[in-house]
């Protein structure tokens, strides 16, 4: 007769198993993009932003969105150059945020005091956010992503933000991450101390075709 041993048997432990045919891989670190790599992205007609190490395809804009941005950017640029206040850029221009993100407002203005000492504009990204950032909402935009962008703008020296809502035909004005003014068709966009003397009727942004 053999006595049973009191020592514990070497039974297999209940460890999590990967599904058949699958291997568990460690989470990969987000890629750290250099300015050169970001600028070398293919010119495929798409706009990209870099957010938390991830390349975000901003897609293509509809005609209404593009025309509003073009009209406002052109009006602002003409005024700014005439009065030697700084420079205005379009939606293809990316700005380098402190956290490593690269953001591209639909229209942006950088005041002359932040360009002092330069004979020409940088070929690379401007370090920091523009003094004035303009976003024209698209159907694909979410409240969360727009709010995140606005927060970053104000963390990086932006002083004024205009968010244009084409469907509802109004503009929200920001001096901080929360809006403090709502402008309707009878109101005017004012450059305030950021773009002194600039004024544009909100109705002009949403003007109907009359030809």
Automatic annotation (TrEMBL):
CDD domains: DUF820-like. It comes from the Bacteria. Keywords: Endonuclease, Hydrolase, Nuclease. Coiled coil: none annotated. Gene3D superfamilies: tt1808, chain A (3.90.1570.10). GO terms for molecular function: endonuclease activity. PANTHER family: SLL0198 PROTEIN, SLL0198 PROTEIN-RELATED. It comes from Thermoleptolyngbya sichuanensis A183. This is Uma2 family endonuclease. The keyword Hydrolase applies. Residues 36-203 form the Putative restriction endonuclease domain. Residues 1-26 are annotated as: Disordered. Residues 8-18 have a biased composition (Basic and acidic residues).
């Amino acid at each position: 007769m053999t006595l049973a041993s009191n020592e514990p048997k070497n039974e297999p432990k209940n460890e999590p198993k990967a599904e058949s045919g699958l291997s568990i891989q460690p989470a990969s670190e987000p890629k750290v993009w250099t300015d050169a790599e970001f600028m070398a992205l293919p010119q495929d007609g798409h706009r990209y932003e870099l957010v938390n190490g991830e390349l975000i395809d901003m897609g293509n804009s509809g005609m209404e969105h593009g025309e509003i941005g073009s009209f406002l950017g052109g009006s602002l640029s003409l005024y700014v150059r005439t009065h030697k206040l700084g420079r205005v850029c379009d939606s293809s221009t990316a700005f380098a945020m402190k956290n490593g993100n690269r953001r591209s407002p639909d229209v942006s203005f950088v005041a002359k005091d932040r360009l002092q000492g330069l004979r020409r504009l940088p070929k690379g990204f401007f370090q920091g956010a523009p003094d004035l950032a303009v976003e024209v909402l698209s159907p694909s935009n979410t409240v969360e992503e727009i709010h995140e962008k606005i927060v970053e703008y104000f963390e990086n020296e932006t002083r004024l933000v205009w968010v244009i809502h084409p469907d509802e035909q109004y503009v929200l004005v920001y001096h901080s991450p929360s809006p403090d003014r709502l402008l309707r068709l009878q109101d005017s966009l004012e450059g305030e101390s950021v773009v002194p003397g600039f004024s544009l009727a909100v109705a002009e942004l949403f003007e109907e075709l009359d030809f």
